[in-house]
Each structure stands twice: as structure tokens, then as C-alpha cells.
């Protein structure tokens, strides 16, 4: 993965010291809360229901074990012993003291981490396919461009006071695991007819109050021009995005109101001026960064491991885990391993400091000292020798990190909700836990197959409910929590937005409703159909009928 | 409806409640609620002053009612702030009682 | 409002003429865009210095052809969160090659100074007890930049190469 050089290091250290100065001014009364707020947000510090919350960037989900140990250390020393993986591949701590922030930022800087731009109206952490660089279905490793975009967007002199936050996601694979169509800018790496690599550019996707699927505004931008093209998009947005109404300030509203074609035209005009200028990527710099992402020292192995096959035959629990948690690697004899941080009946994405440290040890032992964070709030070991899978699994089991629910209904995406979040309308974690318990039976989960169930505690949609096959969003109705159910969302290359099925439910009601939806699917599905396929074939009708049918 | 001022302490973010003598208390049971709307306005002013004095952030009024062990917020949001996350009894003020 | 240039407080030779107010004879003035558009020829005929003030939603393209006549372009920040004038400053410098003073006015504070400098501003009407100290603080804050802008400072990528 990318390692800082002296410049990157100094950049982050300067920023940590700057924030220390700002904290000092705040505590001395030189800055009011109103003046301080944007400064702390620029460093990822929120004030939530119980305390300050610190969001730390994990750039495009890549993490090394030194960093993970540091996160564990921060959790133990400055927080309450755990952290939370977010849907933007970041880590959040929920119980941070303002007094400790200068020290925490220096600790983070020492392992090349920070919270810069993890909040505020600026370009946020760039997110990417969690299998980047190793997926069998990958065309090109997107991390090189993630890193170039990360540097370009860091403290951008022109784009640090945008109308609203701005999220960029990149995928380099056929199957989109990065939800690029749900981002302000989504980039899809591909090759043009002459074999040159470049990006298809989508703009104006996003969830929240007014969800949209991103629209393609250009089929191909050569990789060397990608910063210039993004700068053109951002400049048009910075100048024309709405600033009169916070709820209409995202780029998706601008693109929607003026139309994607008209927006694209403005971008092209701007791009004409910027193209072939100082932002054109120099070969040496691209190569310098590419070196950081060189594949690790793989052994040449046969793709089939006889040891693995016999271990699976002997141990059904292990076989179940393998069946659900592995993905195809491009290197023969290796596997991508998904590690669930969403065990049955537990808060999705929470991880204890002991678990972090144990995982760091395992990643050192088995995975070249690195790991990935996914937007589904789980972790990935990208490079496991197939012959090591059993040993790894045996060590994951006692850590509570061996739940074999990848892509199944209990692998919920869930935001913190009213148990932590100052913006929430309803709790989301206890509901996720209840649903997970209802569907705990492994056989039943596998019988149901792939379902993404996404849950948010309010319309801000941090839990991506619009793009869950089953989506749930909490609303507040006269001090009681009400949950709306939507079906048919999807975040991949065929992205779609879920539609509300009907009137909302209370907490128990929604668990029952989800079960009825699932039962309906099992009843009417055709051979080989996933839930989303069935929904797309039949529409909401049969589901609605079953869910809202009066009890006989 | 009795009301109390609830805020986060500036330095550590911990939830606090305005008690007697302008002191900020960590337990809602130790708060000094206002009974009349006029008094509510007065204690909110005290809270806002404390914000200007770098003591607390975001003071607001919250409705409270008398329960067995003292005052407690009525609204779920403020109840969660007074107790802690509902799915983890080992966290927040509920863990300290 | 104190005017900060090159890190020093200086006397501002310009006065603002709002709306339809009378133009003072022989004084350097800064007028709003609307006034510039309606009285362009008369204003050009004066011998004293001339500047135009753009609101954050007014594009510098509106004065692109007039820049030779202007000693100052003042760009407004109605609130610091309104970042449109950063784009305006860069366009003035980098696209239209404007060499005169680009002045930041409105909600301008210490924490924005380094962004503004990079975007091409060289004069600041800053609301502060000690603008020169603020300037020093801002200079000490951040010296590493990744983005090429028109101010000519070397980016990290350029420094890596050398
Ligand atoms: S979706 Fe709402 S409740 Fe959930 S984390 Fe986001 S803002 Fe908070």
C-alpha cells in the first residue's frame, strides 16, 4: 500500500499542530463554538449525543497492521475500548475528549493517519473497491488513482468550502463493489477501443433526503487527465451548486435541476481550459505511486490446495465459512477472505481493541501485514494462501470474527442511529440486532441467499437504506420510533433505488415485516433467482400483499 | 412540564445537566429543573452564558419527569443522553450508577 | 476594515462607492459590478484608481475584457463558508492573466488565509485584533501543497521531482 514520504508526513504533522493551536484558541475563548465548529469538522471531530466523535480516514479502505494497532491503542487509551467501521471505509470513535485531540492527532500522524476532511463541506475520503488489486474480475488496480486523487483533494485551495460535502468512489472491476453510482463522482476504470485505460465518469449520485443514481457524463477520460477532469467538475459545482438551502446543496440536485447533458456541457467547457495543463499526471509520479501498490511476493502455487479440500471435507463449520467468506483471487493458490464484523445479534461494524490487535497479528502472520475495510463495515484479508485458510479460520473463531454471513441477510449495513448520533430520528443498532437474531439460523440464511439489508436511523441514509435490497429507515413519530420499509434498491453496476412498500412499523412490526418479505420471496422465486431478481421480475405487489394482509 | 438544561461539557464532551448554583452535574438525577416556563427561560439563559464562558456546548431545554430515582428526561433522545446507548448497558452513565 | 498586503497593514487608498452613490472626485474607488456595467465609459475616463467588487455569485467572466482598466478586483465572502470566490480568484489569475490586486473582503479570517493565498488573493480585509500576527500564524501553519495553482508555489509532486 501507499507509504508517506517526507512531504506527506510533514503535511499531516503540520495539520495536527494547526489543530492543536485551534483547540487552544477555543479553550482560551478566542474562538466561539460557531467559529470552532468548521475547524473541528475539518479534522473529523463531531459532537454527538454522548461526547465528541472522531472520524479517522482509512484512505480507500487500505490499512496496515501498524495503523490497526494504533487504532486499538487509541480505542483503549482515549476511548472506551472499541471503534466502529463506517460505510465510508473509515473508523469512528465515540467517546473522545476535546482535551485529548492534539495528542490523538499526533499519535495518528505517527502512523500516517488523520481525520482531515472526514467531515465538512469538502472532498471526503476517496473510497474504492475493497478487493482492489487482487480481484479476479479486475481490469486495473484503482488504488493508484485513489492515491493521486487523495493528494489532489487534500486541503484543496479552491474546493475546501464547497456548497456541501463531496464524495468520490472508484472501481476498477467489472462488478462494482464500491457503489460508484451512489457518489457525487463515481469513476469506473475501463479500456477504450484502442486499449488505452481511462474512466467513465458518473456524477450526481447520492442517497440522503433526495436520492439519485449517478449519471454518466463522459464515457472516457484518459487516466492522465483524471485530475483535470475532476477539477472541472468541482469548479462547476463550486460556482453553481446551490447555497441557499442546505438540503439542495449537493451536486446531485444541481445535476438534476439543470439536466445531466447541460451539466456535462459546462464541465466540458471548463475542461477544455484545464486540460493538458499543470494537472496532467506526469508518468514518473504515476509510476512512483504505482510502485507502492506492487503485488506482494506471491509464491507460485497450484490453484487447488489438496490440504484445503480435505480440511473442508473434515470440518463442516470451516467448509461453511469458506463457502460464504471467500472471493476469487487473481493469483492462483490464493484467496480473498471476508472477515465479518457483523456477528449475529451484535452492532454492525463495531470492533473491540483486543480484536483489532489480534487481527493485526493475524494479518502480519498470513496477509503481508495489510488489510482492508469495506463499505459494508467488514474487513478483508486480501492475500491468503489457500493452504493457510484453515489455520486462519481456527484463530478467527475464538475472536468472534468467524461469522460466515458475507452477503447474507444478517450481514446488515447499519448506521449508529439514535444510540449515538445527534441527527438520528430512531435507533438502528438494536433493530439490526433483532433482525439478525431472527435470521440467525445459518441454513435458513443460506437458503435465502444474497440479500443486502441496509438500515439507517434517519433520512440522511448513512446506512445506505435506499440501495439495500431491503432498506429500512427510522423516523420519529411523536416520541415513538417508526420504521419504513423499502424494497428493490441495489448499489452495484445495476444500481437502483428502493421504493417504500407501504405504511411504517414499530420495532417488532418491522422485524415481522422483513420476515414476511423474505418468506414471500422464497415462495415465488424461480430457479436460481436472487432476491433482487425476483423483486425486479414481480415488482412490489406480492410483497405488499403479504406484508400488509390483515391477520386471518 | 419541568425542564432541565442539558449540554455537553466543552473539554470532554460529556453530557451534563444544570444543577443548583449553576453547577453542571453529570447525573440527571442531580439536576435542578425549572417548573415554570419563566424559570425555564432563566435557566436556559444560564446555560447560554456558560456556553459563552467556554464551559459547555449546545445547551438546550429538555422535558423531565419525576421517577422513582429522581428526575429523568421524557424524550427518547435525551433519555439516551442521560443513560447511554440502549444496546450496551456497559457504556455511558448507566454503567456508572 | 484594516487592509493586509504582503503580511503588513497598509493604508487603503480605495473607497467603496455603493449603489448609485456619488463618485468622489480624484479618489481611488471600488464600485459594484452593476455600477461598472452601467457607467463603464465614464468610470474609465477618470484618472484615479479603479476597482470592481464582485459578489460571490457574480462571475469574473463579466469583467474579463475590462481587466486592463482595473487596479483592484475585490471578491466577496458573505460568509466564510461561501467558497465561490476561491474559484473566481483562480479564474482571474490563471485564466484571464490578471496581474492587479485581488482582494478578499467580507467574512475573512485567519483560518482561511492560506487557502486564499493559494487561490491568488494578495490583499485581505481581515476582521482581527492583530492581522499581522494572524498572517504570521497562517504562514507557519501549512507549507506543503499538493495542488498546482497560479501562485507558482511548488507542489509536492514538483518538489519530489527535483
Ligand atoms: S443515517 Fe441519520 S441517524 Fe444514521 S448516522 Fe446518519 S445521520 Fe445519524
Number of domains in the coordinates of chain C? 1
Radius of gyration of chain C: 16 Å
By DSSP (H or I, 4+ residues per run), the number of helices of chain C equals: 5
CATH architectural type of the largest domain in chain A = 2-Layer Sandwich
* Tally of alpha and pi helices of chain A: 18
What is the strand tally of chain A?
20
Secondary structure category of chain C: alpha/beta
CATH topology of the largest domain in chain A: Sulfite Reductase Hemoprotein, domain 1
Low-confidence stretches of chain A: none
| Widest β-sheet, arrangement of strands of chain C | 2-1-8-7-6-5-4-3
Strand order of the largest sheet of chain A: 1-2-5-4-13
Percentage of residues assigned to helices of chain C: 25-40%
Radius of gyration of chain A: 23 Å
How would you describe the overall organization of this protein?
Helix content of chain A is about 35%, strand content about 15%. Chain A has helices at about 5-25, 35-40, 65-80, 100-110, 145-155, 225-240, 250-260, 260-275, 285-290, 305-315, 315-325, 355-365, 390-395, 430-440, 440-450, 505-525, 530-540, 540-550, and strands at about 45, 50-55, 60-65, 80-85, 90-95, 125-130, 170, 185-190, 195-205, 215-220, 325-330, 335-340, 350, 370-375, 380-385, 415, 455, 470-475, 480-485, 500. In chain A, the strands form four sheets. Chain A has a five-stranded antiparallel sheet with strand order 1-2-5-4-13. Chain A has a five-stranded antiparallel sheet with strand order 3-14-15-12-11. In chain A, a hairpin with a 2-residue loop joins strand 18 (about 470-475) and strand 19. In chain A, helix 1 packs antiparallel against helix 2 (about 35-40) and helix 10 (about 305-315) packs across helix 11 (about 315-325). Chain B has one domain (about 5-95). By secondary structure, chain C is an alpha/beta fold. Chain C has helices spanning about 35-45, 85-95, 115-120, 130-140, 155-160; strands spanning about 5, 10, 15, 30, 50-55, 70-75, 100-105, 125. In chain C, strands 2-1-8-7-6-5-4-3 form an eight-stranded mixed sheet. The longest helix of chain C is centred in the N-terminal third of the chain and has 13 residues, at about 35-45. Chain C starts with a strand and ends with a helix. The mean pLDDT of chain C is about 95. Chains in contact: A-B, A-C. Iron/sulfur cluster binds near residues 415 and 456 of chain A.
Amino acid at each position: 500500500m501507499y507509504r508517506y514520504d517526507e512531504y506527506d508526513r510533514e503535511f499531516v504533522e503540520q495539520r495536527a499542530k494547526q489543530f492543536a493551536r485551534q483547540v487552544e484558541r477555543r479553550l482560551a475563548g478566542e474562538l466561539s463554538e460557531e467559529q470552532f465548529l468548521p475547524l473541528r469538522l475539518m479534522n473529523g471531530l463531531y459532537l454527538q449525543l454522548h461526547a465528541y466523535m472522531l472520524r479517522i480516514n482509512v484512505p480507500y479502505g487500505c490499512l496496515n497492521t501498524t495503523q490497526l494497532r494504533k487504532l486499538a491503542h487509541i480505542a483503549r487509551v482515549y476511548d472506551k475500548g472499541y471503534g466502529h467501521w463506517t460505510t465510508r471505509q473509515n473508523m469512528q470513535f465515540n467517546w473522545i475528549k476535546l482535551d485529548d485531540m492534539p495528542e490523538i492527532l499526533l499519535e495518528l500522524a505517527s502512523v500516517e493517519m488523520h481525520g482531515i476532511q472526514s467531515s465538512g463541506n469538502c472532498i471526503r475520503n476517496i473510497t474504492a473497491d475493497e478487493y482492489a488489486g487482487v480481484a479476479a474480475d479486475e481490469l486495473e488496480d484503482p488504488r493508484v488513482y485513489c492515491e493521486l486523487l487523495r493528494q489532489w483533494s487534500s486541503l484543496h485551495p479552491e474546493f475546501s468550502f464547497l456548497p456541501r460535502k463531496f464524495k468520490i468512489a472508484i472501481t476498477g472491476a467489472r462488478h462494482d463493489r464500491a457503489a460508484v453510482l451512489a457518489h457525487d463522482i463515481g469513476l469506473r476504470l475501463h479500456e477504450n477501443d484502442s486499449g488505452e485505460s481511462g474512466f467513465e465518469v458518473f456524477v450526481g449520485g447520492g442517497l440522503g433526503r433526495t436520492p439519485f443514481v449517478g449519471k454518466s457524463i463522459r464515457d472516457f477520460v484518459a487516466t492522465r487527465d483524471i485530475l483535470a477532469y475532476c477539477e472541472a467538475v468541482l469548479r462547476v459545482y463550486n460556482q453553481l451548486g446551490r447555497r441557499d438551502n442546505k438540503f439542495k446543496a449537493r451536486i446531485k440536485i444541481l445535476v438534476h435541476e439543470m439536466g445531466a447533458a447541460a451539466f456535462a456541457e459546462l464541465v466540458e467547457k471548463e475542461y477544455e481550459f484545464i486540460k493538458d495543463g499543470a494537472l496532467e499526471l506526469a508518468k514518473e509520479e504515476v509510476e512512483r505511486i504505482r510502485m507502492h501498490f506492487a503485488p506482494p511476493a506471491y509464491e507460485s502455487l497450484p490453484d487447488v490446495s489438496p490440504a484445503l479440500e480435505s480440511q473442508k471435507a473434515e470440518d463442516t463449520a470451516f467448509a461453511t465459512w469458506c463457502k460464504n467468506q471467500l472471493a476469487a483471487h487473481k493469483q492462483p493458490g490464493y484467496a480473498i477472505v471476508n472477515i465479518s464484523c457483523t456477528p449475529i445479534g451484535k452492532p454492525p461494524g463495531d470492533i473491540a481493541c483486543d480484536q483489532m490487535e489480534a487481527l493485526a497479528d493475524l494479518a502480519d502472520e498470513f496477509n503481508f501485514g495489510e488489510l482492508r475495510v469495506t463499505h459494508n463495515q467488514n474487513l478483508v484479508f486480501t492475500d491468503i494462501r489457500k493452504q493457510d485458510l484453515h489455520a486462519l479460520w481456527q484463530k478467527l473463531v475464538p475472536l468472534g470474527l468467524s461469522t460466515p454471513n458475507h452477503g447474507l441477510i444478517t450481514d446488515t449495513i447499519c448506521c449508529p442511529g439514535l444510540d449515538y448520533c445527534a441527527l438520528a430520528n430512531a435507533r438502528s443498532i438494536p433493530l439490526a440486532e433483532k433482525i439478525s437474531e431472527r435470521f440467525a439460523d445459518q441454513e435458513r440464511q443460506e437458503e435465502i441467499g444474497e440479500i443486502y439489508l441496509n438500515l439507517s436511523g434517519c433520512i440522511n441514509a448513512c446506512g445506505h437504506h435506499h440501495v439495500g435490497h431491503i432498506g429500512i429507515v427510522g423516523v420519529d413519530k411523536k416520541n415513538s420510533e417508526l420504521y419504513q420499509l423499502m424494497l428493490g434498491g441495489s448499489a452495484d453496476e445495476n444500481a437502483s433505488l428502493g421504493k417504500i412498500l407501504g405504511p411504517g412499523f414499530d420495532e417488532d412490526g418491522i422485524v415481522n415485516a422483513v420476515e414476511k418479505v423474505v418468506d414471500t420471496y422464497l415462495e415465488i422465486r424461480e430457479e436460481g433467482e436472487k432476491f433482487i431478481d425476483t423483486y425486479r421480475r414481480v415488482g412490489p405487489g406480492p410483497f405488499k400483499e403479504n406484508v400488509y394482509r390483515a391477520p386471518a | 412540564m419541568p425542564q432541565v438544561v442539558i449540554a455537553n461539557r466543552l473539554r470532554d464532551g460529556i453530557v451534563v445537566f444544570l444543577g443548583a448554583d449553576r453547577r453542571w452535574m453529570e447525573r440527571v438525577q442531580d439536576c435542578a429543573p425549572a417548573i415554570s416556563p419563566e424559570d425555564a427561560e432563566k435557566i436556559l439563559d444560564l446555560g447560554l452564558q456558560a456556553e459563552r464562558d467556554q464551559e459547555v456546548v449546545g445547551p438546550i431545554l429538555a422535558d423531565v419527569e419525576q421517577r422513582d430515582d429522581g428526575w429523568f428526561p421524557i424524550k427518547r433522545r435525551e433519555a439516551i443522553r442521560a443513560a447511554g446507548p440502549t444496546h450496551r448497558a456497559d457504556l455511558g452513565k448507566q454503567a456508572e450508577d | 476594515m484594516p487592509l493586509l498586503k504582503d503580511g503588513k497593514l497598509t493604508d487603503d487608498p480605495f473607497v467603496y462607492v455603493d449603489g448609485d452613490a456619488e463618485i468622489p472626485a480624484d479618489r481611488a474607488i471600488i464600485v459594484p459590478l452593476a455600477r461598472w456595467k452601467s457607467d463603464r465609459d465614464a468610470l474609465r475616463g477618470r484618472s484615479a484608481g479603479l476597482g470592481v467588487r464582485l459578489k460571490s455569485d457574480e462571475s469574473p467572466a463579466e469583467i474579463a475584457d475590462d481587466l486592463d482598466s482595473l487596479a483592484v478586483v475585490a471578491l466577496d465572502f458573505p460568509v466564510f463558508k461561501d467558497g465561490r470566490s476561491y474559484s473566481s480568484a483562480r479564474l482571474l489569475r490563471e485564466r484571464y492573466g490578471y496581474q492587479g490586486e485581488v482582494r478578499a473582503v467580507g467574512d475573512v479570517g485567519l483560518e482561511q488565509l492560506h487557502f486564499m493565498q493559494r487561490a491568488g488573493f494578495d490583499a485581505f480585509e481581515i476582521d482581527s485584533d492583530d492581522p499581522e500576527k494572524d498572517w504570521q500564524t497562517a504562514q507557519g501553519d501549512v507549507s506543503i501543497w499538493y495542488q498546482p495553482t497560479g501562485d507558482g508555489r511548488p507542489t509536492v509532486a514538483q518538489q519530489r521531482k527535483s
